[in-house]
Specification:
Blueprint (H helix, E strand, L loop, with lengths): L13 H10 L3 E5 L3 H14 L3 E6 H7 L4 H14 L6 E8 L2 H9 L4 E4 L6 H16 L4 E6 L4 E3 L2 E3 L7 H11 L3 E4 L20 H10 L5 E3 L7 H9 L12 H8 L3 E6 L1 H17 L6 H24 L10
Parallel strand pairs: 1-2, 1-10, 2-3, 3-4, 4-5, 5-8, 8-9, 9-10
Antiparallel strand pairs: 6-7
Helix pairs in contact: 2-4, 2-12, 5-6, 7-8, 9-11, 10-12, 11-12
Length: 325
Amino acid sequence: MKYHYKDLGLSNTKEMFEKANKEGYSVPAFNFNNLEQIQGIIEACVETGSPVILQVSKGARNYIGKEMVPFLAQAAVAYARSKGSDIPVALHLDHGPDFETCKDCVEYGFSSVMIDGSHHAYEENIEESKKVAEFAHKHDVTVEAELGVLAGVEDDVVADAHIYTQPDEVEDFVKRTGVDSLAIAIGTSHGAHKFKPGDNPKIRLDILEEIEKRIPGFPIVLHGSSSVPKQFVDLMKQYGGEIADAIGIPDEQLRLASKSAVAKINVDTDGRLAFTAGIREALAKNPKEFDPRKYLEPGKNYMKEFYKEKIKTVFGSEGAYKKGE
């Protein structure tokens, strides 16, 4: 072991999810790729008193550097405590593609990992997920697996079509793998281009309800749950960006899901859009600026304020823990 997450002040997701399911909210799981994004995330969660799962994909981990990622998470915990906040902070691998990647993350301070075997046949998915769970649990690290396939693109994860999670498989899958949470496919989608304007996006809350009946009290995870906020799409275009018109998952549907068995909701694209829109605006308004602090901070602040609102209105996790200064 290079580092153990407890030595970094991090938490795994077990107690987070138990409290979330009991009290009817979802824990926000926000992806980050650099310092400013993790600043925006932790500041938003400290100020709202929300627990948080800091997520990196394999690609983001490679970009930041695997030696640096755990200490960014440790710094986020230190920031929260310095503000008088007791929010739990987890460091999670998003869409771990194989056992070796998950193992490496466990050994480098992650408190939670996802093994995404959804592209495998059912039995192979079970075998791979079980292998990860058995190893991770030896180190008190929690494990998320996926059953069903989400369409869309996120880093190295690419799928052309949805394959909805089959409720009659979930009980067998959870029992045989021993995982701690389950990501399901009920109509959410990865990336910015989830739905076209004029579409009427709906997630299959009926499938969610049936799954909840099959594995009552078990933590469910929704991936691909960004809303693709129009204000940031418009702002990007206003200041020279190019992005096709798109709409995401309606907030009201996600709030209904978070009141049920959904203990964790993943958001990545919204943060990217807010962050990039802020940078584009700052550089367009100040074309002579070359101090990175002056154009990265506006991006961070847009991201922070958007996430604060999302925590209050969608996740329902505001005030679950002590708010910071």
